[in-house]
Amino acid sequence: MRKILPTVLDTKYESILSRERSLAKAVASAVIESKPLTVWEMMIPLVFIHNFLRYKRTREVFTLNFLFTKKLALEAAFDTVKKGQSRQQAMARIKEKTRNILAADKKGIYSQKIRQRQMKEIELLIEHYRTLLQAEGKDYNSMMKNAYRTWEEYSAFLEQIRRAEKEVNRAAQQTVRVATASDLVSKMEKATERIRRSEAGKIFEINS
Fold first, then answer.
1. With 60 as the cut, is the pLDDT of residue 43 above it?
2. Residue 181 resides in a domain
3. What domain range is 72 assigned to?
4. What is the average per-residue pLDDT within 131-135?
5. Per-residue pLDDT averaged across 100-107, rounded?
6. pTM
7. Three-class HEC string of 14-56
8. Is 169 part of a structural domain of the chain?
9. How far is residue 187's CA from residue 163's CA, in Å, rounded to a whole number?
10. Based on C-alpha coordinates, what's the Rg of the chain?
11. 208 in a domain, yes or no?
């Protein structure tokens, strides 16, 4: 039993992380739209390569940022299930890590307000991931069905996480104060909700 359980949990962990990464990439594609080729890009391959790499890099950075709270929460949930750590211990490590990031930020991009909102989001995600990790099944769809059983149960969680993420985004807007931030946040939130509900609709076999 000791040899099988870590393997099962590792598989579940990777399955959840892979799905969250797919979501992040899909949202990045929706928010950071590709642009038509310019004349210079068609005439000069080097210009095309430069712009393509910059565009690709932007999406990659967005994906990493989107996954930041998800990965912290998933790692914490994994440790509580695998190692028997308490949620308080797991949250203490996350608070210490984010506190260090806040202290190291010299540009004022990561504020205490953002951090506080993220803690609420992370607490919700830890419980969500714990539920998935402890559910029957190794693939993501099986874990979801066994963890939430009905669309109504999962929909309630989606509403909770939507509100928590919205609070984080609002705090970020107040901190960054960029003119285009409101439009970008709106696109990101709409894309996230649309993709999540579409995915859930397939899992629970409903028209979401």
1. no
2. yes
3. 4-203
4. 96
5. 86
6. 0.84
7. HHHHHHHHHHHHHHHHHHCCCCCCCHHHHHCHHHHHHHHHHHH
8. yes
9. 15
10. 19
11. no
